[in-house]
Amino acid sequence: MTETSPTGRDFIPGTPPAGPSVAPPQPQASTPVVVGKAETLSPTAAPGGDQLARIEDKCARIEDKYARSEALLSRVEEKIEGAAARMNEAARQTDLAALRSEVRAIGDRTRGLPGSGALVLTAIITAVLTVALTIAAQRFHFDALIPPR
Fold first, then answer.
1. For residue 42, what are the contacts with CB-CB under 8 A and spacing of at least 6?
2. How far apart are CA 20 and CA 81, in angstroms?
3. How does DSSP assign the chain, residue by residue?
4. pLDDT (0 to 100) of residue 1
5. Is 32 in contact with 26 (CB distance < 8 Å)?
6. CB–CB of 27/33 below 8 Å?
7. What is the pLDDT of residues 30-58, one digit of tens each?
8. Are 58 and 64 in contact (CB under 8 A)?
9. Which position has the higher pLDDT, 113 or 44?
10. Predicted local confidence at residue 55, as pLDDT
11. 86 CB contacts (<8 Å, ≥6 apart)?
12. Cα–Cα dist 36/118, whole Å
């Protein structure tokens, strides 16, 4: 940027030289004092006025670029969030499809097994045959065929 001049002036051209004997300029009664609002200066008001206007213009352009960048980033963020939601939904659908195929495979394997009716019938037939064979073994004295210990 600008450097201090050898005469001891400050960074902004058009300011009085810094020193203990120079007091800051006092606002005159005819000059309105505006607080919190920047007024554009005409080039004839001060030699550094045009430089200040250029700086303000540059700041305004930077603020505009920042606003556009921020809007662009918010749109990108929304698109990324939408894509992430779609990916999560696709992953969920894939998980559901895998779960369905597993349940179908287990169902196919268990479909070939006998049902509870067949198991109860088998248990009853086994009990009846056991009782019948035990009674037959006692009537025909099959216990004599077993060697003593």
1. 49
2. 61
3. -----TT---SSTTSPPPSTTPPPPPPPTTSPP-SS---PPPTTT-TTHHHHHHHHHHHHHHHHHHHHHHHHHHHHHHHHHHHHHHHHHHHHHHHHHHHHHHHHHHHHHHHTS--HHHHHHHHHHHHHHHHHHHHHHHHTTGGGGSPP-
4. 47
5. no
6. yes
7. 555 555 555 555 545 556 778 999 999 99
8. no
9. 113
10. 93
11. none
12. 94
Q: What angle do CA 129, 133, 137 make, to 5 degrees?
A: 175
- Quick check: 25 and 16 in contact, CB under 8 A? yes
Q: Is the pLDDT of residue 101 over 90?
A: yes
Averaged pLDDT score across all residues of the chain:
79
Q: Which two tokens stand for residue 71?
A: 């809007």
Residue 30 token pair: 């005819």
CA dist 46 and 34 (Å) reads 17
